[in-house]
Amino acid sequence: MEEYKNYSPDVANILASLAKRETHYFSGRLQKNLIDTLSDGIRMLHNPARHADFVVLRSFDTPSVLVEMGFMSHEADERLLQSYNHRARVMAAIHAGIDSYMSRSTEHAKAG
């Protein structure tokens, strides 16, 4: 909360809470875009939208998501992960999802 050090503790807590809520909202939008693009031709879990309390996902100022491409302990997943073509399709879908998110965020910022 270094960016709020010039505010009273109550105001700093409110601002931090608002920033966290906004970032959580944007992370959800990014997650949806990634699921939409990945689900077009890439096998995914039945319920791919999940949440975890990892430190890297708790940023106040940067939307973040975790993308699991498969499990090395699962034989079929391991084969897919070793396939250049599969990895290229996954990365292309992730790229498209991020591009879509960024385009919508830019449009939202211009309209706001």
Q: Helical region count?
A: 3
Strand content range: under 5%
Rg, rounded, reads: 18 Å
Topology pattern, helix = H, strand = E: HHH
Low-pLDDT stretches are none
Helix content: 55-70%
Number of strand elements: 0
Q: What does the largest sheet look like?
A: none
Principal-axis shape equals elongated
Supply the number of structural domains. Answer: 1
pLDDT average, as an integer?
87
Structural class comes to mainly alpha
Distance from N terminus to C terminus (CA atoms, Å) equals 26 Å
Structure write-up:
The protein is mostly helical and 112 residues long. The chain has one domain (27-111). Helix content is 58%, strand content 0%. It is built from three helices and no strands. It has helices spanning 9-38, 75-81, 84-111. α1 crosses α3. The longest helix has 30 residues, at 9-38. It is elongated and about 55 Å long.
What topology does this entry show?
Layout: H1 9-38, H2 75-81, H3 84-111
Name the features.
0% strand; 112 residues; single chain; 58% helix; mainly alpha; elongated
